[in-house]
Amino acid sequence: MTTTAAYDEIADWYEGQFLGAGGDGHSDPLGLGDLIDDLLGEGTGTCLEIGCGTGIHAARVRALGRTPVGVDIAAGMLRHARGRLPVARADAERLPFRDGSVPAVLAAMVHTDMPGYPAVLREVARVLRPGGVFVHLGVHPCFCGGFADRGDPDAVVVRPGYLDGHWTTASWTDQGVRAKVGATHRPLPELLHAFLDAGLTPERFAESGGPTPVVLAARTRSAGPRP
């Protein structure tokens, strides 16, 4: 896959430069850690992170009492992740887990890297226990993408293209991930319908980053009674 090769090529840059301090000490300007605390919350048992990358969220998940386990398709990223959590190289559309086997799943800033994200969500619903929690953190469909110019931090310019739904490497900056590997854009209703179509029931939503939101987050539940 093109995305796989691209992330393999940029893995060292991603870990050493894009994440700033790198690893568990990286800065968190988007408030992802707070979103994980709030939406995932304390619990026990396995928390499967799909598209775990270099594993930078593992410590946060572990601090909530959960056991982080990661899957990613890019071997270069997993090379950095192995020291932070148990990992497996796998396609998120074919997760190597039994039906109803995990109590929690996390996807953090990866849905634009997965053209088949609706199929990924169906896999999430398959491996979750009845009542299990799935937390999605992703770039905000309304304010991020090839159509959004974030060059002025105080005023995002949204140009035509939001409704198109497409893969692109277009970006307002050549210093970020998207200019290097591209991204798949889905308008907000399409993304939300993908949760529903997979059988995941939304419970809470949140936004972070500012002054115009960069992240849209959701906590959903699989069908069945809560554990």
Overview of this protein structure:
- There is one protein chain.
- The chain is of the alpha/beta class.
- It has helices at residues 2-18, 32-40, 58-63, 75-81, 117-127, 178-181, 188-197, and strands at residues 46-50, 67-72, 87-89, 102-108, 128-139, 148-149, 157-158, 167-168, 183-184, 201-208, 215-221.
- It contains seven helices and eleven strands.
- Helix 1 packs parallel to helix 4 (75-81) and helix 5 (117-127) packs parallel to helix 7.
- The longest helix has 17 residues, at 2-18.
- The chain is globular, with a radius of gyration of 16 Å.
- It starts with a helix and ends in a 6-residue tail after the last strand.
- The mean pLDDT is 90.
